[in-house]
Amino acid sequence: MSDLDIQIPGVYDPFADANAEDTGAGSKEYVHVRVQQRNGRKSLTTVQGLKKDFNYNKILKDFKKEFCCNGTVVQDPELGQVIQLQGDQRKNVSQFLVQAGVVKKDQIKLHGF
After folding, report:
1. For the whole model, what pTM was predicted?
2. Which residue of 33, 65, 81, 86 has the lowest C-beta tally within 10 Å?
């Protein structure tokens, strides 16, 4: 009976795992890829959460060449630097970031529609 691991419900801390993950420097930071509807059929894809070590303008240049679309880097006071691309490029961006080795597949969150 002593070899069974019994947990008492009052002792378990549900936030212990979350606090432990926060101590790791950037261990579970996600890259958020969102699509926003503009007007009519026009849409805008935003990429945020990339590490600050990367050169956003070089990544944007590669995105624009690879996807044949226009884009820009916007400085947001809350979110930091955000890459904006014309059109719905969510799947393309996620595949490109994984193939280029910028982030792992489980660190990408796709949002929208």
Report:
1. 0.72
2. 65
User: Helix/strand/coil (H, E, C) string of the chain?
Assistant: CCCCCCCCCCCCCCCHHHHHHHHCCCCCCCEEEEEEECCCCCEEEEEECCCCCCCHHHHHHHHHHHHCCCEEEEEECCCEEEEEEECCCHHHHHHHHHHCCCCCHHHEEECCC
d(CA 55, CA 12): 43
State the sign of the Cα–Cα–Cα–Cα dihedral 24, 80, 95, 30. positive
Nearest residue to 85 via CA among 102, 100, 72: 72
Q: pLDDT tens for residues 54-96?
A: 999 999 999 999 999 999 999 999 889 999 999 999 999 999 9
d(CA 35, CA 31): 13
